[in-house]
Specification:
With about 160 residues, the protein is α/β, with parallel strands linked by helices. About 35% of the residues lie in helices and about 30% in strands.
Length: about 160
């Protein structure tokens, strides 16, 4: 029962991240054809011998941003970097660090990495990347796929 409760909390916190980032990208970047969230990855850090980890579980949610069907890159957001668990409210709350400047920085860094082949699995060339840029027009017709399914990360 405890694991189910914890996973529900991870979903609530990840939903905050997914909603904020999606809303920002759709309103502030043009050329985005699709935004597809890859679910919630959890690395359970419990040991059958040593018990629970002092550091807790690692939790992330990744988004793939498409300029077209064949041009895309991925950005990863960690639950503990973007949100904080509020014990009084019994839920995650968004941290001030999840802001437009941070999303812009991650977007530009990961887009550059994808162009240069630094991200395994990403597929982006310079021409397609030029279509993705900040604009007050945004991408109101972008297809958005949210995903709050939990999967275990294995390394």
């Amino acid at each position: 029962m405890e694991k189910q409760k914890t996973e529900k909390e991870y979903q609530q916190g990840s939903e905050l991240i997914q909603s904020y980032v999606t809303d920002y990208l759709v309103k502030k970047y043009q050329g985005v054809e699709k935004i597809e969230w890859q679910g919630i990855g959890v690395k359970y850090r419990n040991s059958p011998i040593l018990g629970s980890s002092l550091f807790g579980n690692y939790v992330d949610t990744k988004v793939t941003i498409y300029a077209s069907e064949n041009s895309y890159f991925t950005v990863c957001f960690q639950l503990t970097d973007e949100t904080e668990y509020d014990d009084d409210a019994k839920q995650y709350v968004r941290l001030d660090s999840l802001n437009p400047e941070w999303v812009d920085s991650l977007f530009e860094t990961e887009l550059r990495n994808a162009i240069n082949g630094g991200n395994i699995g990403d597929k982006m060339d310079k021409l397609a990347a030029k279509t993705l840029r900040k604009s007050t027009n945004g991408s109101p017709n972008a297809k958005v796929i949210y995903n709050l399914e939990i999967h275990e990360l294995r390394y």
